[in-house]
Amino acid sequence: MSNKNTNKLHLGKLNFLLLALAAVLLIAGYVIMSFNEISVSPVLLTIVYVVLIPFALLYHPEKK
Question: What contacts 24+ positions apart, CB below 8 Å, involve 55-58?
Fold first, then answer.
């Protein structure tokens, strides 16, 4: 067998924390949408999908 690294994304504790925050905000956005708040929920969902999730997946802190 080869010595391939199975963790290809190298996600750390902060990345998983940001992804958990994104999941909570997604749930909150859809709950807000169920109350017909069509001015708040699309903005929240767009920010989570376009900014927070990609940032959580791509962020790698500098190692000293």
Answer: 55/18, 56/15, 56/18, 56/19, 56/21, 56/22, 57/9, 57/11, 57/15, 57/19
Query: Which of the two residues, 6 and 2, has the higher pLDDT score?
Result: 6
Total of domains in the chain: 1
Sign of CA dihedral 40, 42, 47, 53: positive
The range of the structural domain enclosing residue 45 comes to: 13-58
pLDDT tens per residue, range 4-55: 666 576 788 999 999 999 999 999 999 999 999 899 999 999 999 999 999 9
Residue 4 belongs to some domain of the structure: no
